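Continuing the batch. This is chain 6 of the set; chains 1 through 5 are on the previous pages. Same settings as before, nothing changed between runs. Recording input and output for traceability.
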Amino acid sequence: MRKPFFLGVSLIITIFVYLWQQNMSMRLAYKVSSLQSDYDKLNSENDILRLKINSNLALEKMDKIAKENNLLRPGEKHIIYID
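Output for chain 6:
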């Protein structure tokens, strides 16, 4: 009498654990997908910001800004070379 009861309980527990595992697997897969999407967006934004930095630091633009602000080139005695 006890054997069929324990068999039924163990079967129910096994099914419950299997379903719980499948549920957790789906949740983790969704979370990984979401994080991958966020990572791709941030990577793309990072590339755009790097391009903006490079364009702002371009020598021609720096020269133009210096001329607009009446800045002069330093004399030879003001330049220090570092090895």
